[in-house]
Amino acid sequence: MAPVEPAEDILDSRAAGGMIIRGGAIRAGGFVLSTLLALLGIALVTRHLGVADFGRFQTVISLITVVGTVTDAGMGALGLREYAQRRGDDRDRLMRALLGVRVAFTLVGALIAAGIAVAVGYDWELVLGTVLAGLGLVFMVMQTTLTIPLAADLRNTTLTLVDLLRQALTVGGYVALVVLGAGVVAFLGVTVPVGIAVVAVAALLTRGGIPLRPSVDLREWATLLRAAAAFAMATAVGTIYLYTAQILTAAVTDAHDTGLFSASFRVFVVVAGVPPLLITVAFPLLSRAARDDHERLAYAVQRLLDTTSILGFGAALALVVGAPAIIDVMAGSGFSDAVPALRIQGATLVATFILAPLGFALLSLHAHREILIVNCIALVVMLVSVSALASELGPEGAALGTVIGESTLAATYFVALRRTAPDVLPGLGVTARALAAAAPCFAVLLIDGLASWVAAIVALIAYAGLLVLARAVPDELVELVQRR
After folding, report:
1. Chain segment 402-420, per-residue pLDDT in tens
2. Would 8 be classed as within a structural domain?
3. Hey, which residues does 210 pair with through a beta bridge?
4. For labelling, which of 220, 304, 380, 439 has a CA lying 20 to 30 Å from the CA of 461?
């Protein structure tokens, strides 16, 4: 009997590129739906809690995010990269150890966050809320680990549905708490029952593709942590520096200014989640290409940068022009003074979208030391700029600090990639054409009496038309649309 040829790995096939484009579109569509749900949830929470209590709520969320990022140390992205590069028993041992160490370290992070809350003088409600939010983070870590096979196998529709389920359950919890007249603690604790439900669904979907029983072998954990140390530190600092802006603003301004910046920051963080989401779809392919084919890696990074540049200028245009409508819908008239901060942070999105493919390219190349260095530089810049500007200018100063930090990170990523793999460094031709298309569209701000949401739609339509005229749309996307 002739030997059976093994099935071709989807990441090595010619179909992978098309699947990534379609997967990115699916993930983007899911993100839009998830964002709409999130905005509904934010609108409910801001109106129910008010400016001061929403500032307290968002400050705890930022604290949990920072501490959780330190203890988790980017091992979710590490797991995705290693799952794409390993096989058989080696992969299973890795995933068991990964699940065990992520859960254990996140529990430690939740305790650390509670300790910090006590140390800085939070009242008992915020301390309890910090504990509950930390437990919710544990379940989210379990879910993201269990769904790694879905991402690696490019099963983006299923992955999107899982994310939508989490968001829908969260908003449903918010609705119930508003009806019940609950306080800050209950809203911070809503992630616990939601997390339990989503973990159960993720376990059913990936059963057989990933071990469901975590490893508690300390030797395996030590091996994994040694291998992941540089990767972990590099990715952790990148997340910490951004959320530090919220925590520093709470430290150097009053409750009112903190609440205003919280509203702006919440919108910014939601939109800033788009580029990592899109690049994560392609990350398994980037990892495989980094191992086997730098020419393929360079092609993928270039197309990803072209796409994120176009989206980044569009996102900036939408937030800058549509800021009044966004704040009104999300938070209500009581947060109208947050509009200037949101407009400033809207401009930040250009750098946020551009740096994403560069950072993931460096991760796929195992350039952990370079990522750590540039992220530390951005962290220092963010600490200094936000501390100085927020104390003087309030929420607008804090927003300016994020602009400075993100721009620094984008510039240093370019330098790091050029030094690490100059053959992979992408060109900026499409980015320049996208800038040329976006710049005149901001003129709609000069039209008196035009509602901000109408102005934003007009600006985006004009931007899309100018992109086509400038031939800035990637050929692969045009071909995919034509085939459809």
Report:
1. 889 889 988 999 999 999 9
2. no
3. 207
4. 304
- The torsion angles phi and psi of 421, rounded to 5 degrees, stand at -145, 80
381 part of a folded domain = yes
Position of tokens 């994560």? Answer: 280
* Token pair 């829908």: residue: 168
Continuous H helices in 365-394: 368-393
Tally the residues of the chain: 484
Cα–Cα distance, 210 to 396 (Å, whole number): 46
pLDDT digit string, tens, across residues 58-92 = 788 878 877 776 666 667 667 777 777 667 777 77
87: left (phi over 0), alpha (psi -120 to 50) or beta: beta
The arithmetic mean of pLDDT across residues 135-142, rounded, is 88
- Structure tokens belonging to residue 143: 């879910």
Number of domain units in the chain: 1
Q: Within a domain: residue 123?
A: yes
Rounded (5°) CA angle 387-390-392: 105
Q: Do 232 and 105 meet the contact criterion of CB atoms below 8 Å apart?
A: no
Helix (H, G, I), strand (E, B) or coil at 207: strand
Closest CA to 195 of 113, 134, 251: 134
Q: Which residues contact 422 (CB under 8 A, 6 or more apart)?
A: none
> Is 9 a member of any domain?
no
- For residue 103, the enclosing domain spans 16-483
Q: 329: which 2 tokens?
A: 């819908």
Burial class of residue 217, CB neighbours in 10 A (0-12, 13-18, 19+): middle
pLDDT tens track for 333-385? 778 888 999 999 888 889 989 988 898 888 888 787 888 888 888 888 888 88
